[in-house]
Amino acid sequence: MTDALEEIQAFLGCSTPQAWIEVAAKPESLAVLLIDHAHCEKKAASTAMNLMFRYVDRSDLLNKMSRLAREELIHFEQCLALMEARGIEYGHMSPARYAGGMREKVRTSEPGRLVDLLIIGAFIEARSCERFAALAPYLDAELSKFYRSLLKSEGRHYQDYLGLAEAYAGESIEERIQEFRELEMQLIQAPDPDFRFHSGVPDSQQAA
């Protein structure tokens, strides 16, 4: 998995800031981390299903997104089980600005819209994978094992999204990837008032 993580790191362009890891590793952050992680898994399944319903004529997309949605729902169920065992109640949580910020640059005409959504999917999955690996050494044995177990599937999801984007673009997407890479780096490195699984650098109050 080391080679895959190195590939993902190069794709992202920046590592998760240490300040975010320090806040995420605090015992008082655990409930927020797990609840938001569960929401992220559910949203990832929903995103895959939405792509399946919108682009019904693309068999490769249908097959890969169907598998992805099933895996994300299994991860969602695993998060719920971990939370229940720890007495953490799943509930509503306001979303991070991360995914919404990425989608602000999505083109409106096809196939640009589809390509952009797939590129964003690749970045979200890659960042999730990178954060699982970054967090694992700081968590208790059970959570560390769980997060490490997600690395393989999340890494494959990143590759699936990126491969589909390249296949459907009909041209090089390197410039478009770089545009989203710069945006993603800004969202990850900028100060963020709310701690979430995909949030930016926590503000001074959270980091205290």
From TrEMBL:
GO terms for molecular function: tRNA 2-(methylsulfanyl)-N(6)-isopentenyladenosine(37) hydroxylase activity. Pfam families: MiaE (PF06175). One of its GO terms (biological process) is tRNA modification. InterPro entries: Ferritin-like, Ferritin-like_SF, tRNA-Hydrxlase_MiaE. This is tRNA-(Ms[2]io[6]A)-hydroxylase. It comes from Marinobacterium lutimaris. The lineage of its organism: Bacteria, Pseudomonadati, Pseudomonadota, Gammaproteobacteria, Oceanospirillales.
